[in-house]
């Protein structure tokens, strides 16, 4: 399968080199929301050194690998068919990693025992586009998070077709168990930002945990 490389500049050294695939599903290219979230991590707003980080729907692995270059211990997850691409990108950038990074299969809605205890951070870029995946995704988020887990969800607001309705439903369901706070645009990377790309900081509602 033909591949083409996307370079993602880093503040602290050489660029990440991310292979993409010309054929395949939505996970095979670096989406803009992934670039925005990866560059937001570089601002230092969230301390990542020696933290446990899990990326959901990692695709090319851009966000998770960036977190690993900032000292985090990262597991990038996606479906079986994306493992080869994730492995290639981890290998291509391993000389830049100051934490650790590995790829694993995680299918939303299924058992997450092997990913316990809860990570410090869960990273998600552009994971909201299939209506049928919303409930499995929400189940996975509930199963993975502890009271101190911070979820960073970055998404591009899309106005076409069913997208607005799917987005609305996702946040409606999410707010049953989680607190949401949008990160203002002026806190995003100065260059990698856009009015229609949002980053939301998400935590479990504390009332769900017995004191």
What does this structure look like?
The protein is α/β, with parallel strands linked by helices and 211 residues long. The chain is built from five helices and nine strands; from the N terminus they run ββαβαβαββαβαββ. It has helices at residues 32-42, 62-69, 83-93, 134-144, 163-174; strands at residues 3-10, 13-21, 52-56, 73-78, 100-105, 121-125, 150-156, 178-183, 197-204. The strands form two sheets. Strands 5-4-3-6-7-9-8 form a seven-stranded mixed β-sheet, covered by helices on one side. The chain has a two-stranded antiparallel sheet with strand order 1-2. Strand 1 and strand 2 (13-21) form a beta hairpin. Helix 1 runs parallel beside helix 2. The chain is globular. The relative contact order is 0.16. The mean pLDDT is 92.
Write a brief caption for the model.
25% of the residues lie in helices and 28% in strands. It is α/β, with parallel strands linked by helices and 211 residues long.
Question: Key terms for this structure?
Answer:
alpha/beta; 5 helices; 25% helix; 211 residues; 9 strands; 7-stranded mixed sheet; two-stranded antiparallel sheet
Ordered list of secondary-structure elements with their pairings:
Layout: E1 3-10, E2 13-21, H1 32-42, E3 52-56, H2 62-69, E4 73-78, H3 83-93, E5 100-105, E6 121-125, H4 134-144, E7 150-156, H5 163-174, E8 178-183, E9 197-204
Parallel strand pairs: 3-4, 3-6, 4-5, 6-7
Antiparallel strand pairs: 1-2, 7-9, 8-9
Helix content: 25-40%
First-residue to last-residue Cα separation: 53 Å
Radius of gyration: 16 Å
Look at the helices and sheets and give the structural class.
Answer: alpha/beta
Shape: globular
Mean pLDDT: 92
| N-to-C series of helices and strands | EEHEHEHEEHEHEE
How many DSSP E strands? 9
* Poorly predicted tracts of residues: none
Strand order of the largest sheet: 5-4-3-6-7-9-8
Strand content: 25-35%
Largest sheet: 7 strands, mixed
Q: Counting H and I runs of at least 4 residues, what is the number of helices?
A: 5
């Amino acid at each position: 399968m033909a591949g083409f490389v996307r370079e993602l500049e880093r503040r602290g050294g050489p660029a990440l080199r991310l292979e993409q695939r010309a054929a395949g599903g939505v996970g095979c290219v670096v989406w803009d929301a992934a670039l925005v979230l990866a560059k937001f991590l570089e601002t230092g707003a969230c301390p990542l050194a020696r933290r446990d980080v899990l990326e959901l729907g990692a695709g090319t692995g851009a966000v998770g690998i960036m977190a690993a270059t900032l000292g985090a211990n990262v597991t990038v997850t996606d479906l079986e068919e994306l493992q080869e691409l994730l492995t290639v990108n981890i290998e291509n950038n391993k000389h830049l990693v100051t934490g650790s990074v590995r790829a694993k299969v995680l299918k939303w809605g299924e058992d997450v025992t092997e990913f316990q205890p809860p990570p410090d951070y869960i990273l998600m870029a552009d994971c909201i586009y299939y209506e049928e995946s919303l409930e499995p995704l929400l189940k996975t988020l509930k199963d993975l998070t502890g009271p101190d887990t911070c979820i960073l969800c970055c998404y591009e607001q899309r106005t076409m077709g069913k997208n607005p309705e799917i987005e609305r439903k996702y946040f409606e369901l999410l707010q049953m168990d989680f607190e949401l706070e949008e990160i203002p645009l002026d806190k995003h990377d100065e260059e990698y930002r856009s009015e229609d790309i949002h980053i939301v900081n998400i935590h479990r509602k504390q009332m769900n945990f017995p004191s």
